[in-house]
Amino acid sequence: MKPIKKISFFGGAGFIGSSIVKILANKGFEIKIATRNPYDEDVIQLKSSCGDPGQISLHKVNINSKDQIETFIKDSNICINLVGILYEKSQNTFQKIHTEFVSNLVEAVKKQNSIKHFIHFSSLGVKSGTESKYLESKFKAEELIKENLENYTIIKPSVVYGGGENDFTNMFAKLAKLFPIIPLANSNVKFQPVYVGDIAKGIEKIIDEEIKKETFEFVGDEIFTLEELVKIISNEIRAKNIIIPIPSWAGRIQGRILQLAPKPMLTLDQIKTLESGDNIATNNNKTLKDLIVDLEGIRKIIPNYLYRFRPEGQFSS
Questions:
Q1: Are 122 and 83 in contact (CB under 8 A)?
Q2: Distance of CA 76 to the CA centre of its chain
Q3: Which of 7, 115, 140, 226 is most buried, judging by how many CB atoms fall within 10 Å of its CB?
Q4: Are 239 and 177 in contact (CB under 8 A)?
Q5: Nearest Cα to 299, choosing from 169, 178, 197?
Q6: How far apart are CA 176 and CA 67, in angstroms?
């Protein structure tokens, strides 16, 4: 009988993380989830709904503390990092969350002989030399990992759909329901959206096959422009929106204004990320198809949860 592998998971309670936790718990892994608030209802629900009693444990961890990071990952066999932010707020900057935390985590992983596999989530399209602080911070983290570890796997997903709170399809559904006219910057930028369930299956295979010192681009099998994606979402919720492509300078003004909201739907840095180029596979790295994952298309998945934005709910024609 093989010993049960222990996984330390940063970001395990989020949209993508919870899907991975469910599939790994079903395989019998013992999973520790780092969280700011172990009493959060969603986190408790995840723990209670997955696996056997005691299989999943919640740990309050300050990711800015090197000591707490080291303590949390101690005696683990696998460490997964899914921590990330979409916009900066107060002390939570891209540099601090995406780069400095990863630097401390890599240092801790190097000290733990028990950890045989470190899986890090970055993002598709990450590169240096852009105006986007998001992309720059993610790029630095990737370089830190490659320079210091041999047992890593880097995951670079495109935009992800599947029903999470921060799922881009939910965000655009909200916009489409509220605004009949949508001014859209960088409307011709291409995306290759990926289903959250396919990401979880990909991680399962990477762990099973112990694939290391490799970078994967997790993308779907269809490519859309941003405008096409918004139209697909708009049609799904039975909204008749008028989409008006606007130039980047106007998008930057839009981002500056919208980022003032407590939970902004759009920021200036996100506009700069869009300006950096297409969000599609580069063909320089392996993808989910190399892992023999049967991909689910966006038109098949989004009706399962976007119906709530329709005028008459799921019973709208």
A1: no
A2: 23
A3: 7
A4: yes
A5: 169
A6: 45
What does the domain layout of the chain look like in residue ranges?
6-161+193-220+281-293
Give the pLDDT of the chain (317 residues) as one tens digit per residue: 466 789 999 999 899 999 999 999 999 999 999 998 887 877 888 877 887 888 999 999 999 999 999 999 999 999 999 999 999 998 899 999 999 999 999 999 999 999 999 999 999 999 999 999 999 999 999 999 999 999 999 999 999 999 877 789 999 999 899 899 999 999 999 999 999 999 999 999 999 999 999 999 999 999 999 999 999 999 999 999 999 999 999 999 999 999 999 889 899 999 999 999 999 999 999 999 999 999 999 999 999 999 999 987 665 55
| CATH entry, 6-161+193-220+281-293, from 3.40.50.720, 3.40.50.10420, 3.40.50.1580, 1.10.1040.10 | 3.40.50.720
Q: Rounded to an integer, what distance in angstroms lies between the CA atom of residue 8 and that of residue 12?
A: 9
Burial zone of 25 (CB within 10 Å; 0-12 exposed, 13-18 middle, 19+ buried):
buried
Report how far residue 269's alpha carbon sits from residue 106's, in angstroms, rounded to the nearest whole number.
26
Which tokens go with 4?
Answer: 């049960």
| Residue 313 DSSP code | G
